[in-house]
Automatic annotation (TrEMBL):
Domain GFO/IDH/MocA-like oxidoreductase: 125-234
Molecular function via GO: nucleotide binding
Lineage: Bacteria, Bacillati, Actinomycetota, Actinomycetes, Propionibacteriales
A Pfam family matched in the record: GFO_IDH_MocA_C3
Protein name: Gfo/Idh/MocA-like oxidoreductase N-terminal domain-containing protein
Residues forming coiled coils: none
Length: 326
């Protein structure tokens, strides 16, 4: 039985507590939060003051759901104590901090994971599986749209670090390739210190074109990932976990004006019936199984560091007006 500790029991930490308690082979033995237990998730556990007390409780693994600015300090202490750790996204506040974290966990032979929960969405899991099996043939382009009203919980970052980081991570993961370049434009429309809109375009090392539209100024919630290839397009809608395949047409075209266009035509549209499990539960299974040496489906700190570099590249490109190359 793995002994788990959880630090940070706020808006995200409370959901981690619930999922850890439901996870086979794991026992939640310690909780820490300097601000107390405002959501009442500790139950019979004492709310400890800090990561040092959490470590002293004798834990094998920890989940870190404190603000991003504290990730480095907390994770480095956990690494020094030999504790496998999953931190909420993003990895750290700066690339330098992220590099130190990656080194500490890798040299210590520890599992260092990052909570990019979108990778565990049923639609994206099925999409990646189908792409790997060759359903689309050669992949040409990946387009994401992540739009919604402004969330009151966000105070310390803009839309790039909070939301676009998901799209960068899942795009590289789905395509199986790192970013080669990124170019971005940002806007500040609500009077906040940080950007609330970004439009970014780039290319992956394998030649796949990418485009990301992300903002906090849309009066509806949209979470869409579209992958287009030789055989058609797979479209994942991750709010509801739906996946649809738009197949290229095979019927002969009888309309001369369209026949002369050297492209594709509309074919069969298939919406798949998927098993829809809570993504956070799947994420915790991946972390546990990585600790036990069963698989490596978790998002590693090194992968999260690559994502941080692309995200910083977006911000640098928006400021300089130049494309960022990696």
């Amino acid at each position: 039985m793995l002994r788990y500790g959880l630090i940070g029991i706020g808006s995200m930490g409370r959901h981690h507590a619930r999922n850890i308690r439901a996870l086979d082979g794991v026992e939640l033995v310690a909780i820490a939060d300097a601000y107390g237990d405002k959501f009442g998730v500790a139950e019979d556990l004492e709310v400890l003051p800090d990561v040092d007390a959490l470590i002293d409780a004798g834990i094998d693994a920890a989940v870190v759901a404190v603000p991003t600015a504290q990730h480095h300090e907390v994770a480095m202490k956990l690494a020094a104590a030999g504790v496998h750790t999953m931190v909420e996204k993003p990895l750290a506040s700066t690339i330098e901090e992220g590099e130190e974290m990656v080194k500490a966990f890798e040299t210590g032979g520890l599992i260092g994971a990052v909570g990019y929960v979108e990778r565990c969405n049923p639609a994206l899991l099925e999409m990646r599986k189908r792409i790997a099996e060759g359903q689309l043939g050669k992949v040409y382009q990946i387009v994401t749209r992540r739009q919604s009203p402004f969330p009151a919980r966000i105070a310390d970052v803009g839309v790039v670090k909070d939301l676009a980081t998901h799209d960068v991570d899942l795009t590289a993961w789905v395509a199986g390739s790192r970013y080669k370049s990124i170019s971005a434009f940002t806007a500040y429309r609500t009077g906040r210190e940080y950007e609330d809109m970004v439009s970014a375009s780039g290319e992956l090392e394998n030649g796949v074109l990418v485009n990301h539209v992300v903002n906090w100024l849309t009066p509806f919630k949209e979470r869409v990932t579209m992958v287009t290839g030789e055989a058609g397009s797979l479209v994942a809608e991750t709010v509801m976990g739906d996946l649809t395949f738009y197949e290229n047409g095979t019927e002969p075209i009888g309309w001369d004006q369209i026949k002369n266009f050297r492209g594709v035509s509309e074919g069969t549209v298939t919406r798949y019936a998927l098993q829809k499990r809570e993504p956070l539960a799947v994420e915790h299974e991946h972390f546990r199984d990585a600790i036990l040496g069963k698989d490596s489906e978790h998002v590693s700190m090194r992968e999260a560091l690559d994502t941080m570099k692309v995200i910083q590249g977006m911000l640098d490109s928006a400021e300089s007006g130049k494309t960022k190359h990696f």
